[in-house]
Amino acid sequence: METIFSKLEQQLQEVFPELANTLNPPATEAQLMEVEKVTGLQLPEDLKSLYRMHNGESGYTGLFFGLPFLSLEKALQEWNLWVTIAGDDSFASIDSTIISVPTGHIKEQYANKKYFPISEDGGGNNIVVDLDPDTKGQKGQIINSGRDETTRYVIAPNITAFIQFISAQIDNQNYVIEKEETYNAWYLKQPANSHFLDALSNLDLPYGVSAIDNDLSLKRDDFNFEELSSEWKDIVTSSCKGKVSSDAVSKIKILSLLKHKIEDISPLKYFTGIRELILSGNPISDISPLTELSDLKILYLAKTNVQDITELAKLENLVQLSLYGLSLKDFSALSEMKKLKVLGAESSGLTTLGDIAKIKNLTDLNISNNQLESFEELTALKKLVRLDISNTNVNDISFISQLTKLKDLSIYRTEIKDFSPLAELPSLEQITCTIEEFMVIKELLPRKVRFGISGEMTEAQKEVWLRYGAN
User: Fold this and answer.
1) pLDDT in tens, 271-327
2) What angle, 0 to 180 degrees and rounded to 10, lies between the N-to-C axes of helices 45-53 and 2-15?
3) DSSP characters over 225-271
4) Is 208 exposed, middle or buried (0-12, 13-18, 19+ CB in 10 A)?
5) pLDDT for 216
6) In angstroms, how far is CA 66 from the centroid of its own chain?
7) What are phi and psi of 227, to 5 degrees?
8) CATH number of residue 59's parent domain
9) Could you tell me if residue 367 is inside a domain?
10) What's the number of domains the chain is made of?
11) Which residue among 332, 340, 437, 449 is least crowded, i.e. fewest CB within 10 A of its CB?
12) Taking the complete model, does pTM exceed 0.70, yes or no?
């Protein structure tokens, strides 16, 4: 690390001394030991070597192409923030939105106590050293993480390779420097983007590693662009940003085809690396081509013509599913979706909860606008954090006291007369109901929660609601 970073320092002194001069003096061994003691993490040797040279930088010029190299003190502050989030069950459902590239290298979690932040953007996003990689990953790999970073990339296999990446961009003159009276900054020239994290999707990553992108091994040899319909040619061309090839198609992770008037989805078999797929609002009935998408994690089928979801049971990695507005008679496939965490089954023709009750990992469930035979089966879903049973025929919510992790409940326009079981929910934070229901429920709860109001309010009612929220 010493040799590699010394080269980078020399380069910076030549092309951007304003940045080189912001690097802090070395961290002490005592500071490094204290960080490891507080975090319980064993920092990689090359990371510690870097801190022995410079304990981060002063200011926000941004060693990492606009993002600052954090001192150990600031890194520890960022770590503490994320540790609190990592231990909060209410964030568990967000895990379902996280996608990793390459697949299997990064654990798909919103927050992880074993991420050590080395940079932050001031908006809740970080570059971190990943000390808890997935099965194919490498301990110490450099990844992006944070509030807006739903797609996580392995930027480099370690901090040494990441520093080499920065040095290589200088060698290739792939940077732009801006100098103003009040600030200095630099960015990558290609791909052009003023925020380094936003450039990751267009970089050839991980840096310094060959043949790691296992997603390419999934590409199909039978891809033939010319055989596609004009509609699908447009979709492929747009998704590949003009660089059409089997490799490019297999690399696509997120695809939105919302209201594209598509009936035939058979070309999706070429999108072998897809992780999130939006098919809502299309006249689709046959979803068998989806079985080719083994890594599919998030699927939206809302407002389509799908009447049979049996094939979805073959999607072993499915974590989030929307069935809103479908006319289904058989929900048995849901019972086989062991990894499913988020399910939207509102207005779907659902009448019984037996199959859903078998999905033990569910954290978010929307079954609103359905008429059900019983709601008792919900007691089996011990991990539920969010539940929507509004616009249903539920009249007895005694079962709800067993959902001890429930934090967010939508319960408006039901047949419930007795709301007292809500007082037994230790984790409840948010209730969405009508103003009339609010007037009753607020008197029953042992502590205050947030109320969202569905429907209209008179001025007098609104005043009571606002006063409750303000006190």
Assistant:
1) 998 999 999 999 999 999 999 998 899 999 999 999 999 999 999 999 999 999 999
2) 40
3) GGGS-HHHHHHHHHHTTT--SHHHHHH--EEE-TT------GGGGG-
4) middle
5) 47
6) 23
7) -85, -10
8) 3.40.1580.10
9) no
10) 1
11) 332
12) yes
